[in-house]
Amino acid sequence: MSKQQTVFDHMTAAPHRSLFLFGAMQGVVAVLWWIFDLSGRYGFVGTATQWTVAPTWVHAFLMVYGFFPFFIFGFLFTTYPNWMNGEKVRIREYVATGLLMAVGVVLVYAGLLTHKLLVILGVELMLTGWSVAVYVLFRILLTAQAQDKRHARVTSAALLMGWFGVAAYLFWLVSEHFMLLDFARQAGLWLFLLPIVLTVSHRMIPFFSSRVLDNYEMVRPFWMLWLMLACIVIHACLQFLGLAAYLWLVDFPLMACAAYLSYRWELQRSFQVSLLAVLHISFAWFSIAMLLYGLQSLIYFVSGDLLFGLAPLHALGIGFFSGMILAMASRVTLGHSGRPLELDRAIWLLFLGFQATAVIRIFADLVPAVAAVFYLLAALVWLGCFGMWAFRFVPIYWRARVDGKPG
């Protein structure tokens, strides 16, 4: 067997390998493109580039629908069969998902410089890859014999809402009807990403904690999960209807529930094991983000002043989503490559750098006078930390397991 074939075999040996590889590459490229745009737009280097689609909406789309899903699909393709004792995902299915989405992303970048039609074609390919993944995961959900499918039902519904979000973005590109763009934005954040990351956290953080902490009580209050999901859906509806003054009615309960779960899941004890601590720290950002959202809405309700800018969004997106994706991807990569489930000092420091990225980006919105500089600084720190993480982990995806086992 040739070396090229061997590399291909390793990359397709498990669902997460190729998808995590594409996700890591996209994480680097997406932020490089954003740094290039910010540098020209604010006059740091060169001049503003004329893109075929407004860069702000492209940045949001590429992060929500073109970065996180590679890791989410890689994770769920691995865990769905385990969660529900269902059939394994076939090689052609997870390879097709990854390739269609990756080629779609490449076409989006090409179209931004050349012609909008290429952007539209790229999003169509991404939606096709997404369709394959949704079909496969729903098939496992519906055919598996497991009695408890509560977490999988929530994540499946959220994936479907994400599919509708990508479709709405596609139709916005064609029609330029702003309501479609607004739906894509709200659905991607509140009906796709947040329900999935919250639900996976609800299932996995107590489980992982129970495996490494002595005398640990595994707490998974489902009534609280349903309450939080209801608040998230209401938030999305209020946001879409332009009723931002009333978001605090659901955002403060969300904050309280998230803070309670951090306490019951024993955030303070998680620092005994660094690979566990990164999960708990990432989840703690959820309560911080909802506190900022709630305060922003309450101040707007009382005074009519809309403060904090996009600080709540980036506390959620960088602190919670990016942190949790990095933590989960690290754990899956290490565990499924036969390596010890532990973070060395370098990766731990990279994770702390991610926290600095969130703080810098939040500060940019709190102090508008220096916003442009801190926008760029946050992107550079994010790129440095994520780039070094990718440099360490990406080669694992095209190499054999160190313990000689398949997968």
List the helices and strands and how they pair.
Blueprint: H1 3-11, H2 15-41, H3 55-64, H4 68-84, H5 91-113, H6 116-143, H7 150-175, H8 178-212, H9 222-240, H10 248-264, H11 267-270, H12 274-303, H13 311-335, H14 345-366, H15 371-393
Helix pairs in contact: 2-3, 2-4, 2-5, 2-15, 3-8, 4-6, 4-13, 5-6, 6-7, 7-8, 8-9, 8-12, 8-13, 9-10, 10-12, 12-13, 13-14, 14-15
Structure, briefly:
This protein is an all-alpha fold and 407 residues long. The chain is 77% helix and 0% strand. The two termini are 18 Å apart.
Plain-language structure description:
By secondary structure, this protein is mainly alpha-helical. 77% of the residues lie in helices and 0% in strands. The chain has 15 helices and no strands. It has helices at residues 3-11, 15-41, 55-64, 68-84, 91-113, 116-143, 150-175, 178-212, 222-240, 248-264, 267-270, 274-303, 311-335, 345-366, 371-393. The longest helix has 35 residues, at 178-212. It is globular and about 55 Å long. The two termini are 18 Å apart.
Give me some keywords for this one:
77% helix; single chain; 407 residues; mainly alpha
